[in-house]
Amino acid sequence: MAVMMVNLYTHWLKRWFSWMVETIKRNENTQGFEALPRRWVVERTFGWFGRYRRLSKDYEYLPSSSETMLYIVMINRDATTFNSESFKSVFHLNFDFSNIPSETTIDNYAPEVQKTTWALTPGGAINFLAFVGLYIVIPEFILFQPRARLHILKQQRRKITLIAAGLLLCFLVFPPLLTGLGTVIKIANLLPHDILKMALFYSLSLLACVRFSQPKLISLIVLFNSLIMMKAYPWDKYVLPLVVVFWYLKSVGFKEQFRLFKQQDIALVKENERHWSTNP
């Protein structure tokens, strides 16, 4: 029965993979130790497994867990010992690795803010707020009761004026970056003068500051992401995770519990929403 199973296995390997299976047997006339061809490879592999704690004993409850650990061990060994020469010898391929850029060359293309640990560009936070204004604030204003929101904004003129003055001061000290990637940068590059480009960034970032001026959970998330963008290259794709989270919370009707503003402001917002929902 065992011989038949071996023959079936050999035939299957030859048919599907074109592999030839050779059984290595010990010479019966030899006394003592004898190194058999390729038999040591199996014992060496078992020795590798034994050097990992999870495989040194049969700790796992399920065989599938042990199999997974075997995969992890072999991936770890391949990742730490594999190089270009072994790649050529295993796959019989000839690749030229001399044209791969060195770490110094790659570092030359990195943004200046990422070359040192403590370098920061506060203007990157302004860029991120402009991205938030384009991808979150404007669509939300258009889709969700714009007349009610305009009525609320008219009652908060003093607050908006203070926010605009503070943002203008930040613009003068830390202007936004006019270089970068994404839709906002492309729109800004279409404008003929830098003053118009600055006005575009100022308008979009002001929308974001007004929308997320109240200390809520989503406002803290926007603030945290803005601080992170002080260390990143201006690219509006970095705002996409925030956009997904915001619109998901909006779709499920998530009510923010982290509120610090006054209760009369809450009542005012609810009253306006109720008024404009009944009188569109």
How would you explain this protein's 3D organization?
- This protein is mainly alpha-helical.
- The chain folds into 2 domains: 41-96, no CATH class; 114-278, no CATH class.
- 64% of the residues lie in helices and 0% in strands.
- It is built from 14 helices and no strands.
- It has helices spanning 2-17, 39-50, 53-56, 63-81, 84-91, 103-109, 123-143, 146-154, 157-173, 183-190, 194-211, 217-228, 240-251, 263-278.
- The longest helix is centred in the middle third of the chain and has 21 residues, at 123-143.
Describe this structure in a few short sentences.
The chain is mostly helical and 280 residues long. The protein has helices at 2-17, 39-50, 53-56, 63-81, 84-91, 103-109, 123-143, 146-154, 157-173, 183-190, 194-211, 217-228, 240-251, 263-278. The protein folds into two domains: 41-96, no CATH class; 114-278, no CATH class.
- Tell me the β content: under 5%
Give the C-alpha Rg.
32 Å
- Give the termini separation: 84 Å
State the major sheet: none
Q: Kindly state the percentage of residues in helix.
A: 55-70%
Q: Count structural domains.
A: 2
Helix-strand layout with pairing:
Elements: H1 2-17, H2 39-50, H3 53-56, H4 63-81, H5 84-91, H6 103-109, H7 123-143, H8 146-154, H9 157-173, H10 183-190, H11 194-211, H12 217-228, H13 240-251, H14 263-278
Helix pairs in contact: 7-11, 7-12, 8-14, 9-11
Give descriptors for this structure.
280 residues; 14 helices; 0% strand; elongated; 64% helix; mainly alpha
